[in-house]
Amino acid sequence: MTLGFAAPDLPATPLFVIEEAELEDWRAGLPATQAAWLAETGFSARLGEAQPMPGPGGAVAGVALGYGSAAARTRGRFHLAAAAARLPGGAYRLAEWPEGMALEEEALGWLLAGYRFDRYRKPDPRDPARLQPPEGFDAARIEAIASGEALTRDLINTPAADMGPAALEDAFFALAGRFGAEASAVRGDDLLAQNFPLIHAVGRAGPQPPRLLEMRWGSAGPRLTLVGKGVCFDTGGLNLKPGSSMGLMKKDMGGSATVLGLAQTIMALGLPLRLRVLVPAVENSVSSTSFRPQDILTARNGLTVEVNNTDAEGRLVLADALALAAEEDSDLTVSMATLTGAARVAVGPDIAPFYTDADAAAAALAEAGARVADPVWRMPFHAPYEAMIEPGIADLDNAPAGGFAGSITAALFLRRFAGAARYIHFDIYGWQPKDAPARPKGGVGQGARALLDALPGLLGL
């Protein structure tokens, strides 16, 4: 879906964003009827409050929005989005807001508050509350970011019956077509002929053939390669997941969805770089052709992998894709994947952990994540744990025994395939477990906005 601002020439209701500490002084400067109305209705400027104020003839003269206290704001983000969801349809404009308010964050949150996934139900007939961009504000950039996030959410929210490898390929090619990018796919047994054995092994039992999708866009500038895990549904394979763990596995392609949303934003903004996107799209299913525990597979780059758990399949398909990426020069290679439960245990569902050997890149991502309200956290490529992914019978183990450091060992596994390029790996969750401002329960992008904001520094744009 497309999320956008109201046209700047429309009549718009003014919004007054008020902090709790400033409420008394601000109210004292209002006309007596409005001040009395706010007092009578109990408006206290708490975060998320939205109180219309009366004007002549009963018309709405403006809306007071609560911005709470600095302490309250540390407990969340996208604070105006909560109020936006309570307003009737129409155009609104910011007339007054606190000094230092993160205007871009709040404007983006307002747009994202309008996101609806209505593919399987009747669309909401109500008009949304649309915000006019403030003067001098880069509305096109924020709209591009919001639309990229909407694509990510739509892809994740679509159930596997309608978002299998073929449908993910359709979405991939449709995105490429909109921006004049080149796209190609290697499918089924052609994966073996073209040396993608791990992607084939994981996906060969699925109802749709596995495939590797590739997109290229841009003719000049630094090279950025994005690799996204596209496991459209994960049963766990022969190491079958219990039902409680399988319930959210339509989101196991969240890495590919996030990469595609980011790619859309990059292309919409026309960033001066050469973009390459790789997505291994598979289902990890159970059949007579499923790959098995104790199988030893040979990856594209020649490394052998002992399969000690068929539910650790994401790193296998990413391995072949990263090995392909490493065959060309890249200034930065980034993988995104809903890879391990261990990452969720470590940082919870709201933070995107990432791995890199480059201290400057890590600092840039951390600063960008804080700046754009996309929380990320650096995790270590801890070299002493390399021995944990070396089983002895093969070069690598896809699921080391013991359960320790599961996200770290997965990242170390992937690093073996990333080559000499500067490499960043995100182990994301891709799901909002309950409603929050600008983030309804369901699929969500993580790490993409932080990476987008950091790209100028990372690539010298």
UniProtKB/TrEMBL annotation:
The keyword Ubl conjugation does not apply. It comes from the Bacteria. SUPFAM superfamilies: Macro domain-like (SSF52949), Zn-dependent exopeptidases (SSF53187). Keywords: Aminopeptidase, Hydrolase, Manganese, Protease. Pfam families: Peptidase_M17 (PF00883), Peptidase_M17_N_1 (PF21337). The keyword Protease applies. GO terms for molecular function: aminopeptidase activity. Residues 309-316 form the Cytosol aminopeptidase domain. Belongs to the peptidase M17 family. This is Leucyl aminopeptidase.
